[in-house]
Amino acid sequence: MRILAVDTSSAVAAVAIMNERELLGEFILNHKKTHSQKLIPMIDVIMKNLELSPEDIDVYAASSGPGSFTGLRIGITTIKAMAFAAKKPVVSVPALDALAYNVPNTGALVCPMMDARNNQVYTALYKFEKGMQVNISEYMGVPVQELVQIIRGKNSDVLIIGDGVLIHKEYLKSELGPRCHFPPQYLLQQRASSVAQLALNKAAEGKLENCFDMVPFYLRKSQAERELEKKRQENTPEAK
After folding, report:
1. Is pLDDT above 70 for 120?
2. Structural domain span for residue 44
3. Does residue 204 share a domain with residue 88?
């Protein structure tokens, strides 16, 4: 089974192609947030270098969220279009699951932490049991201060990963001390190969989707929606 996976949930744009035996290719670009310009050319380059056509891909996969509203829509729309044209199934992979899978089989808890702006993060907690990833919390959109309190309550070492680390690392170290650990830089951010591996696992279990059913997963409304709601509240008779 050959899978093409993308991750556009953050500033990183990533594409990978993998089968059950090996990673065939991966393209990661962390330069501005220009997924609408870069993703299709990235897919084209990796497919040409592997001498593959869209019909050679058995399953298409995408990081489904949470994350960048625009980025997620670009990645998911691209995968849905390719799968529809090739008449192939798709697999949705939560972005936090994939990010946590960058560092499998650690003895510590794993906490992916994606920047959600305004001192907020998208996050969840995971542990690995017998090589299997287990989610031990809900997917959350919380202030980083609240995340620290949640981690303190777990009474365990924690490995924190994601672009939120780039912003909050010193705060996390000061609040959590020696219980707080971070991976090397090359594992810190999204990788399409992690999306591909989890998609392979799902596909092997028969958890395939029709491309029409693939939709972004958001933990909160977009900034534009929040600002519109705020304006509407300010213009209500009660607010005047």
Report:
1. yes
2. 2-95+191-227
3. yes
